[in-house]
Write a structure and sequence with these properties.
Length: 321
């Protein structure tokens, strides 16, 4: 592969949470970056990239985006927090990946680094916790791996944290800060996390390493997180006293069920629902990251180190609603 300074790369889904971080890090490494997404890039990045605002299935836009590109970082996907419609999920994740592969092959791209999900591992293993999202991500992986024209590298991140994050972890930070979350049961649920900055750095590493071609890599920051410890840390970060009592588990389930019903009627008011409840009480997949570490990856931060910045980015949830 050519040196980073002269290398032209494409980032799909670049305007999203992870895409913005990856784009910034690629620019810092000296890459020439083309970005493609349905939304504009933030002003801090817009002047330093060639941005194409288009749908992932716009063939003409994909062809233009691939011009003189040697590596594609394929991030474009669908947020899965509230379970998108299956047709839309498959359109973006499966058909979108097929379109990216076809355009990249025609353009002579040498490598695609695909941002999949640790949920694809659950689907691959036939886990009872496997989701539709994980299954379509696994299907997209197989599409790329079947190509003989382009090197495919699969990256399976766990839950990603950082300023601007969305999902259950962000809602936990917001709800504790706003005083709207009752003390959780004494949950020792295990989970794995990774910072958005470490994820971006790992993707660049996989783009550069010749030996990564054709392989799949799970990524986490290596910390053994327990939910009750995360909860306590968030209270401390907000400067709030954590209540000494604990919510009975059955009461938490009842509240989650009620919020699920409210969310069906008024999606804008959706809060802690049944999916969030299941994520709180069940251990998450703890991946084996040895393969990535053998390439030289080492996480530079933890959720606890980043928590003050996450709280600051959240603002004042008591007044910002």
């Amino acid at each position: 592969m050519r040196g980073a300074v002269s290398q032209r790369v494409l980032v799909t889904g670049a305007s999203g949470f992870v895409g913005r971080s990856l784009t910034a890090k690629l620019l810092a490494h000296g890459y020439e970056v083309v970005t493609l997404s349905r939304s504009p890039m933030p002003p801090s990045l817009a002047g330093n990239v060639t941005h194409i605002e288009a749908d992932l299935l716009d063939a003409a836009a994909l062809t233009a985006a691939m011009e003189e590109v040697s590596i594609v970082f394929h991030l474009a996907s669908v947020a899965h927090v509230y379970g998108p419609e299956q047709d839309e999920l498959r359109r973006i994740v499966v058909a979108g990946t097929e379109a990216v592969l076809q355009a990249a092959t025609a353009a002579g791209v040498s490598r695609i680094v695909y941002f999949s999900s640790i949920l694809a591992q659950q689907a691959e293993e036939g886990s009872a916790q496997a989701t539709e999202y994980g299954q379509v991500k696994l299907q997209a992986e197989k599409i790329l791996q079947a190509s003989t024209a382009i090197e495919a590298v699969i990256l399976r991140p766990v839950n990603v944290y950082g300023p601007g994050m969305q999902g259950n972890l962000q809602r936990l930070v917001q709800m504790i800060g706003a005083g709207r979350l009752p003390p959780l049961p004494a949950l020792t649920t295990r989970m794995a996390l990774v910072s958005v900055a470490d994820l971006a750095q790992a993707a660049i590493l996989l783009a550069q390493q010749a030996s990564a071609a054709g392989n799949t890599y799970a990524i986490a920051d290596g910390t053994d997180y327990r939910l009750h410890e995360i909860e306590a840390a968030i209270y401390r970060a907000w400067g709030r006293r954590q209540p000494s009592w604990r919510c009975p588990r059955v009461l938490l389930y009842g509240a989650a069920l009620a919020m699920e019903v409210i969310g069906l009627v008024r999606p804008a008011r959706r809060g802690l629902g049944l999916r969030t409840y299941r994520n709180l009480v069940a251990d998450h997949c703890i991946p084996d990251t040895a393969a990535l570490e053998q390439l030289g990856f080492q996480a530079q931060t933890t959720f606890y180190q980043e928590l003050p910045a996450l709280v600051q980015a959240t603002g004042n949830p008591r007044t910002d609603a």
